[in-house]
Amino acid sequence: MKARVLIRPKEGILDPQGQVVERALPALGFEGVSNVRVGRMVELELEDTAGIEEMCERLLANPLIEDYEVLLLEPAADPAS
Amino acid sequence: MKARVLIRPKEGILDPQGQVVERALPALGFEGVSNVRVGRMVELELEDTAGIEEMCERLLANPLIEDYEVLLLEPAADPAS
Question: Whole-model pTM?
Answer without folding.
Answer: 0.88
